[in-house]
Specification:
Layout lengths: L3 H28 L16 E10 L4 E11 L5 E4 L11 E4 L4 H37 L1
Helix pairs in contact: 1-2
Length: 138
């Protein structure tokens, strides 16, 4: 059995990694919120989604988090009338990405808070380890 403090560090580090990936996916979605296709009628950028899964760490017996899939949002594209756009079809309509900025901003905020919470666990565990080392020295 591994030390509970070391185990909490492993769990928190897996959370940090997962939330980093989540922030990357959200940033890609935000950056491509207005990216249309290159030619008339082409599909635009399709919003990415992320799925997490629990993964058992056999050494510690703890459930770690991992990214199980980065998929594509299957919701329909937004259609706008913009005849001057190179991606416009014969009727002047352009398919726009299925990215909702409010959803992305909320997801970014949640990922940021989760990242900070995991970082706080790492800081606390480190502080406990340092206190233990100081106690053993004296």
């Amino acid at each position: 059995m591994i030390d509970p403090i070391v185990s909490s560090l492993k769990i928190a580090s897996s959370g940090l990694s997962a939330q980093s990936t989540r922030l990357r996916v959200v940033s890609e979605n935000i950056a491509n919120a207005n990216t249309t296709g290159d030619v008339a009628g082409a599909d635009p950028y399709q919003r990415k989604t992320i799925t997490f899964a629990a993964e058992l760490d056999r050494l510690s017996g703890a459930d770690l988090v991992k990214v199980s899939d980065v998929g594509r949002d299957q919701s329909p594209f937004i259609v706008e009338h913009d005849p001057g756009n190179p991606a416009a079809n014969a009727d002047g309509y352009v398919k726009m990405p299925n990215v909702n900025m409010l959803v992305e901003m909320a997801d970014m905020r949640e990922a940021n808070r989760s990242y900070e919470a995991n970082l706080q666990v790492v800081k606390q565990a480190r502080e406990i380890i340092n206190m233990t080392i100081d106690l053993l020295r004296s």
